[in-house]
Specification:
Layout lengths: L2 H12 L6 H7 L9 E6 L11 H7 L4 E7 L17 E2 L6 E4 L9 H4 L4 E5 L10 H15 L2 E5 L10 E2 L19 E2 L3 H12 L6 E4 L27 H10 L19 E5 L3 H10 L5 E9 L9 E9 L10 H12 L11 H11 L3 H7 L4 H6 L2 H10 L22
Parallel strand pairs: 1-2, 1-5, 2-4, 5-6, 6-9
Antiparallel strand pairs: 3-4, 7-8, 10-12, 11-12
């Protein structure tokens, strides 16, 4: 039995495992929330260890006045497709007004926050800069500061672990909702740790911030070791394999490579009509990238405009405990496509909108220009090294959890 799965099995037998921030909040009798008017930024991924939603927990606690909900991209129910405008509405089960933060505004307005004393943030993140929930977090913190409202973050595991730091940084000219902060593409912090960094290093004026830490998590943990069940964090991240695949393939979708979005394996494949998956897999695996294996794969699309089309290419299998860099794997795929399918010019022929999205994901024009000038994926990856070293030092004051199993800090207020 592989060591990772042996650990999981023993953890279940012993009753050990990660206790999310929401469970710790309940255990400690809701510190900072009792008899206060509370807003909640949430979606279906915010659940306790036993699967009860944070929304349900706060709504049923009579000593808390849950006055407002705030929905990020995909909405509070997590079902709205990526990029689709969401309107505000009144929640049918609770009667509470749900304010959309992915519609007319991306930041909560003063009228949305009127009367609130604390805004609680609880959603599962995937540890990647372009996943928009962290942009929502920063905007909520920024606007809460202006209104004198406290922000409470209920911490959750970074499913990539707490030590994986990869990819390019972000230059100011390419700041966007899919890249709000000058941090690496894979940033190696929990959402609570990132909130502390945002508060000190990013906001012009810090908000009153409290982070409710988890119990039992350490930086070396991958998701399978937490003992937690993955709840779909967005429509195209239904499982942990898609979360890892997102980091490896998300740059490809806007330049004409099918990554499985809309099918049963989102972000886990790289395909196109007429490609030779066997040859592609052979070239990718010959690179020897630790922990990432490509296998030939073909699939006849069942949905959308291209239903019935036979696609072929590769499917990725990622070992979460290995050190191979996920953030550069999309460029390795593009490099193999360039060699195997020289007639394909998806990146070179992308229109301005698609190029803009590609550059926003990468934080600048540099990776795209390097690739189009014939540079290899390895050469592109090397340009990230100095920034990752700087980030490794910059993040240190904001770390809450140890590298190995150790006593977890007691609950307290991380106020700035």
């Amino acid at each position: 039995m592989p060591l990772c799965f042996l650990f999981i099995f023993l953890s279940f037998l012993s009753g050990e495992g990660v206790i999310p921030g929401v469970d710790v909040l309940v255990e400690k009798e809701f510190p900072g929330l009792l008899h206060k008017k509370v807003g909640l930024v949430t979606n279906p991924s915010a659940v306790s260890r036993n699967g009860k939603s944070t929304l349900q927990i706060l709504f049923q606690e009579k000593r808390i006045r849950l006055n407002a909900l705030f929905g990020p991209e995909h909405g509070v129910y997590g079902t709205v497709p990526a990029g689709k405008y969401i309107s505000s509405f009144r929640e049918s089960n609770t009667g509470i007004w749900v304010h959309s933060l992915y519609g007319a505004t991306r930041a909560p307005s003063p009228s949305m926050m009127k009367g609130l004393e604390v805004i609680v943030y609880d959603m599962q993140d995937i540890g990647c800069r372009s996943y928009t929930y962290i942009s929502t977090l920063g905007l909520v913190m920024q606007e809460a500061q202006k209104q004198g409202i406290e922000v409470m973050v209920l911490d959750r595991p970074n499913p990539m672990g707490g030590n994986r730091m990869e990819g390019p940084g972000l230059t100011p000219a390419y700041k966007s909702f899919i890249g709000q902060y000058p941090i690496p593409y894979v940033y190696g912090l929990t959402i609570g740790e990132l909130a502390q960094w945002i508060n000190v290093r990013y906001l012009s004026k810090p908000c009153r911030l409290t982070v409710i830490p988890m119990k039992g998590w350490h930086r070396g943990m991958v998701w399978e070791e937490t003992g937690l069940k993955w709840v779909s964090s967005s429509p195209n991240i239904p499982d942990i394999q898609s979360a890892r695949g997102y980091i490896a393939t998300s740059i490809l979708g806007d330049v004409g490579v099918d990554t499985g979005v809309g099918e049963k394996f989102p972000f886990q494949v790289a395909m196109h009509e007429g490609w030779n998956g066997t040859a592609m897999a052979k070239r990718l695996n010959a690179k020897g990238i630790e922990g990432i294996r490509a296998e030939p794969f073909s699939y006849r699309a069942k949905k959308g405009k291209w239903a019935g089309t036979l696609y072929s290419g590769v499917k990725l299998h990622i070992n979460p405990q290995a050190n191979g860099m996920l953030a550069s794997y999309g460029f390795h795929i593009l490099e193999v496509i360039r060699k195997e399918n020289p007639e394909w010019k998806g990146l070179a022929r992308a229109n301005s909108e698609k190029r803009g999205l590609f550059d926003k994901l990468n934080g600048s024009t540099v990776p795209r220009v390097m690739f189009l000038n014939g540079k290899s994926a390895q050469e592109i990856e090397q340009t990230w090294a100095a920034g990752l070293v700087r980030w490794s030092e910059e993040r240190k004051p904001f770390l809450i959890y140890p590298n190995e199993r150790a006593p977890i800090p007691s609950i307290g207020s991380n106020r700035q």
